[in-house]
Amino acid sequence: MTKEHEFKTWLEQGGAQTEAGRNSRAYAIRTIERNLSALGMPHRDLDEAWEADRFEALRERLRKIREDARTGGQDYRILMPDSDNPHNRLSNWGSWLGQYGRFLAGDPPGAAKDADRIRQYILEHYIEPAREEGRDHVDVLVRDVNEALGLKEAWPNICQALAGRIFQDMAQLPEPERIGADQSSATVFRFKLDETVQSDGSRPFVLFDATGAPFQPVRNYNRSSGVSAFRIKPRGAGNKADEAIETEDIVDVARAMLVDGLASRVKAIAGGPVNYLTYGGDKLVRYELSPEIAQAIGVPPRGGVNGTSSADDGRATDAKIQKGFTPMNLILYGPPGTGKTFSTAAEAVRLCGEPVPQDRAELMAVYQRLVAAGRVEFVTFHQSMAYEDFVEGRQPMTGADGEGEAESAGFRLETVHGIFRRIAKRAETSRGRSSGDDMIRLEDRQVFKMSIGEANNPEDAHLFEEAIEGGYTLLGFDDIDWSDEKYASREAIFEACKDHRDGSGDIDSRSGWVQMPFRFRNWVRHGDIVIVSKGNQQFRAIGEFVGDYEFKPRPEGGYAHRRAVRWLWLDRDGVAVSEIYSRGFMQQSIYLLYDSELNIPALERYMNSQRNDGGDEPDQFVLIIDEINRANISKVFGELITLLEADKRLNQPNAVRVRLPYSGDEFGVPSNLHILGTMNTADRSIALLDTALRRRFTFREMMPDASILEDAGQKCGIDLPRLLATINERIEYLYDREHQIGHAYFTACSSRADVDEVMRHKVIPLLAEYFFEDWAKIAAVLGDLEPGEGSITGGFLKRAILKPPPGLEDGDAVARFRWQVRSVDEGFDYSKLVGT
């Protein structure tokens, strides 16, 4: 093994953190290479084996040795003569051989790519130790991986790296089971280590009956016919393995799953026509099939099973989601603590066309996914909020913004979009549904930034248009044909660049003349994503690489290097790079973007939002404005007051556009942008809200609901519904209905101590604010006020008589009192307040 040192260095850069781990991999590769002849391979070394078939025959041989070892065979002793537990070690060796192949292929080390670091870490710290211990499965908590690798809340990156086919192939594992919310820090991936991945990529197939008891897994690769076969349960059979039948007909499998109502934990059949399955517990409740299979088994292409329909299972049909939507302008108003802000989350999920889960945690998981994708934005209004923050304004900028520009001294004023224009831009450029079973996902794709000419140079404008029209991307630099295989080497490109300049010029292997062609030719893979920049702060196109490197010289010279691209998204005006990436672009023609800095949900939404141009209705977007009455509405909204009306939205009968004062752009509000607001009526009267805004919004009152507190009251041993109702009735009598106490103050209470804490630190201070420190009224609300002018020891408050100063003892002094809240040691007495 002549490249052992280079391989270890490559491993270390890719995330193999321990020297022992790197040595184990090198030892395995050395052992395999030393025994190639004994393994039946005709190659002298692994370099020759890689050139022959990319290790395909060798990895198949290792798989057969593993299968032989399962049945008590001894072939494994070719590699491991003294091992008593060869199967798991062989799994590791197979994955390490795959890594060595990537090293020989010249793949860039994973140091620049977090996905590689993540895969390497999981393999080294989870999969391999679990195999050595003989465990049947291992669980990986996303939060633990994020902390161990020092990543910055990279939950989506970790989830996609672990769920993708690259890791499954690398670790020789089937698709993991995902437990918990999707793309969350609490997501758990369960990898089953005792299942075998077949040579055709298929997995053991297990069907469950209504009780959830499984059939035994069976190997589903038929060597004689070379196709997959599945065990299914015929109608009326029991749940024993010997009562199952084996079939190679995918129609039989689909019928068993759908018509017979069998439940399965299998999400889909790899490569098969079952495109979408949803489970309630262990029961299949919704499905989507290809038309051919649907016709063959006699069911609709979409629907529910076991008597349910797609509407019954809580998911609206596509027609309900897509057709006939009306722009919604809604304000939820009411006293504090009535759940207005939380209700906007549920309303936003509904307006985005998603099913609204009943469980709070599940609802918030869906809501956060929509926020991450940029379909929901949240902003809180305050007294300093201005038009420049909300719509657009001028901000000072320093430095350069375009490719090839020099850094400039001083600063310049540039128009910057506010939160409303940003989400309106997303809504306007969305022309189709960005979610669904056929959506393009990032998964294990690399993401490249590319510039096509200088964005601010009019003479280069034709290059971008040509690339979009022709379905390719362009790279400049020397007009040298890099098609020859020898240019897989950076050194070869360097030498060719030197020769092209007759050895003159300031150039080395790190210069852009060498680096950019090397990346463009050798790093890019089919399926990778390209983001075309517009200066350093914007992007204007997203595409998918679908072709190999091509050399197409031009008569005028320059930009002769091409790769075919399927363009997915286009906006010539450009969108801020902050929408999808946490930093500005660098002034390099092509380079890999850091996975940890990408907003993956937002990028995936952009990639899919224009794929159904002219077909489906666009995605729905929601802007939530919390405390909308705290700002100067006329000052913040400006001309939007007119544009918000439903019939004046874009694509509506009375659509209106206005020219904005800073940018000079013509602007209208898209019809697929909904606006939700909340207003705390205890802060400011609803009557004071701008009349023009009131006419353009629907107002929905949210008052306290004491019945919600029944379960909490049982846990605490206090009649919380009666307590809240009594307090609010007295507040309404003494003040008004707008200043009641919301039920949300008490919903999290699970003990009497929790209720005491809420009363002491939230309710009583709020009452003091309402009644301007008039403690007699506060005591009346709490049931502690007594007639007369004596001392009081109430359930919450105590009143003591203050002695008059000297000279006022003869009756001229007015009776004065000191009010105090009972101490923590004294506790509160709720008997008067709740009538017990």
Automatic annotation (TrEMBL):
Cited InterPro entries: AAA+_ATPase, ATPase_dyneun-rel_AAA, Methyl-DNA_Rec/Restrict_Enz, P-loop_NTPase
Signal peptide: none
Gene3D superfamilies associated with the record: P-loop containing nucleotide triphosphate hydrolases
One GO MF term attached to the UniProt entry: ATP hydrolysis activity
Domain AAA+ ATPase: 326-707
Superkingdom as given in the UniProt entry: Bacteria
Entry protein name: 5-methylcytosine-specific restriction protein B
